[in-house]
Amino acid sequence: MRFGFLFAFIVSSTGLAWAQQPAIGVVAPLSGPLAVLGTQVETGALQAVAKTRSTIVMLDDECSAEGGEKVAREAIQQNLRVLIGFLCAESLETALPVLKQAKIPVVSIGVRNRSLTDQRSKTGWNVFRLAPRSDSEAQAVARIIPPMWREKPFAIVDDGTLYGRELAESLRAASTEARLNPVFTDTYRPDLDNQIGLIGRLRRAGATHVFVGGSLRDIAIMARDAASLGSTMVFAGGEVLRNDESDIPLAKGTIMVGLPEWREITDKDVLAHLETQQIIPDGYVLPAYAAVQIAIEALATMPDDPTSALAMRVFKTALGDIEFDAKGDVSRSLYDAFVFDGQRFVPMGKQR
Q1: pLDDT for 296-324, tens place per residue?
Q2: Half-sphere exposure at residue 298, Cβ-oriented, CA atoms within 13 angstroms
Q3: I want to staple 251 with a disulfide (CB 3.0 to 4.6 A). Which of 145, 223, 247, 330 is the partner?
Q4: The pLDDT value given to residue 173
Q5: What is the phi-psi region of residue 160: left when phi exceeds 0, alpha when psi lies from -120 to 50, beta otherwise?
Q6: Which class for 167: exposed (0-12), middle (13-18), buried (19 or more C-beta within 10 A)?
Q7: Listed range (227-231, 290-294, 310-314, 347-351) with the worst mean pLDDT
Q8: What is the pLDDT of residue 209?
Q9: Which of 150-164, 179-193, 290-304, 338-352 is least confident?
Q10: Assign residue 17 a region: left if phi > 0, alpha if psi is -120 to 50, beta otherwise?
């Protein structure tokens, strides 16, 4: 277990001057099996304050419930005014009741549970988050696919899992609302070595575009089998297409509804600075950087009431303008449609 007290200082006209602003707590798993993620958070936070008068204090929550309560009490003892980080729900949910009493707000960069902010009016927790809600992906599928496929004979299939069903049902409901009728809907059997039978049924139904609520491997197999039968069917799926692994190559032209890579939307000057420091902006580096920027601005605006500042302001960050809605979620969706070019996913067009 380690608690690092890492201070940023600047060179002023009178020499070295220690920061005078209230300290910001950065919470991450700095020990244990998830320490590699904690290192990403620490790196991003340190780079964000490197040329400011701000001070950060690193706190190790170990991604556990016990760790969450521990860092909350440590934050109070250290008189920290804002906390950022928190990659794990177990830690955050035990920390928030303690932090509520001390009126210390949190900007989470990793917890996606929708209940966290949905119950804000009931719990009174001072929580904001950069991480997308767990239902944001399904909402994005419902927003993006129907207008894109309005003139296409499309099908919707899912693998019967909670994840797959949620995406498929969201798209079905949105299609109905838009007065669009899929030519085929079904629940398929996942994890097979081929999907020839399903492809045959899709062809007989006349489907040319297929949304799949399922895994990367299943979608790759469907596209492979469709091509083997001479079909040019286009397949689409959710963000698992970027995050899953598969022994079957993904077909060029496969569509993903998902988030961009953080570096794709990051300020170029920030990326250039990180490059000069030989820092690879993977994982949580850039979200941590942006969260610290938000905390700095909130404290600069309303040092005695950063919670109100977080609720009221539009923050200029490395990831663009960030504003939180009444629940504490980011007000704009970053989800968009991307197409696989054979090597990587590239944006299909302007964000919808």
Answers
A1: 999 999 999 999 999 999 999 999 999 99
A2: 30
A3: 223
A4: 98
A5: left
A6: buried
A7: 347-351
A8: 98
A9: 338-352
A10: beta
- The pLDDT value given to residue 245: 87
Q: Which two tokens stand for residue 161?
A: 């899992």
Are residues 235 and 223 in contact, defined by beta-carbon separation less than 8 angstroms?
A: yes
pLDDT of residue 51: 86
Average pLDDT over residues 110-120: 95
Straight-line distance from the first to the last Cα atom of the chain, in angstroms, rounded to the nearest whole number: 44
DSSP collapsed to 3 states, the chain:
CCCCCCECEEEECCEEEECCCCCEEEEECCCCCCHHHHHHHHHHHHHHHCCCCCEEEEEECCCCHHHHHHHHHHHHHCCCCEEEECCCHHHHHHHHHHHHHHCCCEEECCCCCCHHHHCHHHHCCCEEECCCCCCHHHHHHHHHHHHHCCCCCEEEEECCCHHHHHHHHHHHHHHHHCCCCCCEEEECCCCCCCCHHHHHHHHHHCCCEEEEECCHHHHHHHHHHHHHCCCCCEEEECCHHHHCCCCCCCCCCCEEEECCCHHHHCCHHHHHHHHHCCCCCCCCHHHHHHHHHHHHHHHHHCCCCHHHHHHHCEEEECCEEEEECCCCEECCCCCEEEEECCCCEEECCCCC
Query: pTM for this one?
Result: 0.89
pLDDT of 8: 37
Beta-carbon-side half-sphere exposure of residue 207 (alpha carbons within 13 Å): 27
| Lowest pLDDT segment from 1-15, 63-77, 110-124 | 1-15
Residue 253, pLDDT above cutoff 60: yes
Tens-digit pLDDT profile for residues 40-72: 999 999 999 998 999 999 999 999 999 999 999
Tokens of 68: 């969450």
> For the chain, which domains are there?
9-132+263-323 (3.40.50.2300), 136-258 (3.40.50.2300)
Token pair for 140: 């994005």
- Give the whole-angstrom CA distance, residue 306 versus residue 55: 15
Residue where the block lists tokens 């201070």: 7
